[in-house]
Amino acid sequence: MTIHDRNTTRAAQALVSGYPSPAKYGLDGPGAMNLAQRLVVFNATFQDLEELIPRARRVMGGGATNEVVHRVARHNPDSLWGIARRERYAAGETAAEGYLAFLMLNEEGADRLMSGQFDGTNPPFEYLTRQHQKPAAIYVWGAYAPGLIAGGVPLAFEKTWTRLYRDAPLLARAVTIEGARLIEGLGFKRGARFRGKEAPHLHMYPRGASVGESRPIYDDFTGADDDTVSITLVRSIEDFMRVVSVRSATFVAEQDCPYEEEFDGNDFCASHLIGYVGKEPVGCLRVRYFADFAKLERLAVRHEFRSRQLGTRLMRAGVELCRMKGYRSVYGRAQKDLLQYYVNMGWRPLEGRPEFFFSDHAYIEIVIDPEPDAQAIALGMDPYVLMRPEGKWDQPGILDRSASRGASAKGGACKR
Where do the domains of the chain lie, and which CATH numbers do they carry? Predict the structure, then answer.
């Protein structure tokens, strides 16, 4: 996706202030519609494309030919949207002044795009859906939106929120700084994760099932009403009661663990992960933090769900959470007869330590030494990031809005 000239750059600043920044006009928010009160979006005509595509190609330094664009528009008319000033359109000057183009990709097309094997200058129809077909993903093929017309881009994106298209993730490739600023201002995130592949050269606006795929493993719960396996962090008393129910069913009822041994006084100084199958809480893990290491413990999965490999997923999620917090050493304990299970995940026995016993089981101390995440929480980073909900450091939180209010005139007041 290319946003191409200085006029467009200035118009894009109406969408984004500073770079990088939180999505100021997210595509699913009311601000997108407010931006376009002076603009109108409509299906681009043959003549619109004849006039606009050569202009776009000149400033982009290349791109699809007129013939290719016309073929795509005939294959699926929802692919090309013209943008014009409302007053001119209402007065009968119905020519588009800019456009936004999409490619509606089927599963094979989405896979090829994610793998870097998709030719956007001449996309084969075998990778594209027709107007009545549900796409696997929508690729932002191109944009030409000079000056004021850039404000109509969010309105053109509204065309992808119909029932047919609303679950398909939006993918884009920004080839200029201006293009990146515009799409990131609309809520796209740098780096796409979809269909088991990662594409750092693409931007992504996740929707539908891809929302979970785009989230870190320790926070990919979407609440989907299906049998999807997912995980999230405890952030409320209701969440914690779900943890209590899973551990009670697993340790107290099934393994005859005394209540006072299971609920040992450490639960309110720890993080907790909950594993779900669909909306049903079925597993959990506790994470406690010390000066130079973190500790994973109280791994539990309800017996009727143990064929879903949720225990392995929870342990990996716990390690990833610790990596995001900057830990280089994570400690755990493995029941002696399950040691090989943990070794297969990359853990190792803690050297020089004997087995020990509690709650009538023999245990081995284990450790894993991950490298901290490249974006790990650290001193000196954006203070608003440090105020965001646990595990959601990559998403603007409620307190990010404070940045736009400035300081209160009343000493000590907290303005809401």
Answer: 6-214 (3.40.630.30), 219-368 (3.40.630.30)
